[in-house]
Hints:
This protein has 2 domains: 4-121, Rossmann fold; 125-223, Winged helix-like DNA-binding domain superfamily/Winged helix DNA-binding domain (Arc Repressor Mutant, subunit A, Orthogonal Bundle), CATH 1.10.10. It has 8 helices and 11 strands. The protein has helices at 12-24, 35-44, 61-71, 86-95, 107-119, 154-165, 173-180, 189-205, and strands spanning 4-8, 28-32, 49-52, 76-81, 99-102, 134-137, 142-145, 148-149, 171-172, 213-216, 220-223. A hairpin with a 2-residue loop joins strand 7 and strand 8. Helix 2 packs parallel to helix 3, helix 6 (154-165) crosses helix 8 (189-205) and helix 7 crosses helix 8. This is Regulator.
Amino acid sequence: MERRVLVVDDEKKMQVLITVCVSEAGYLVQTAATGLAAMDRLKAEPFDLVLLDIMLPDVDGFSLIAQLRHLQEDVAIIMLTALGETEHIVRGLNEGADDYIVKPFEPDELNARILSVLRRKGGLASRKGEEKQLKVNEKAHDISFAGQSLGLTKTEYRVLHRLLSNPGRTYTREQLLDLAWDRQVEIYDRNVDAHIKNIRDKLEKVGADSTMIQTVWGVGYKYVEHEGINQ
């Protein structure tokens, strides 16, 4: 079954460019030039993914994310915009976007990002090389690799579990702080960095590749799927 992609951009030339690029990768593409038109599309039929510009004539893309998710909770959303400052990227991710791509873009990168986001719907890990994947025991609050427990603290478990739940998605430090700590206690972004370092150390101790937890400079962290064996 072909995946359905909605392109939301008010520039006709950009609509055509994105449509050609994404269609050649095998997706069914429809377009919308305004936020209202995008919502009408989602009301009429389901989509797997939305490519969303920020600067629309009737609404900004940031505020549109929640409205689109209200119409279709499981739709994936990638921001595709000329606004490339870190503050815009962080805001887009905090608003709930699954990824953020800055124009101009390379067609191969765009399609790779789309594929990565859509794969997240398949669960925590790919079945390929399953015996070499991290496995989560939610009842025991434990994560293991090749049968060996990582021995994570409660906070480390929460952080790693969230990253594993959405492969390829970048989480800001703010999002990880909200997840893992009582915000009534004074904490700092670097607390997250320290816990990520501990998680990476524990991955290496059981023979996993710690680079599966990648730093997105100036933003936060993400988990990238691969077999993760240190040779």
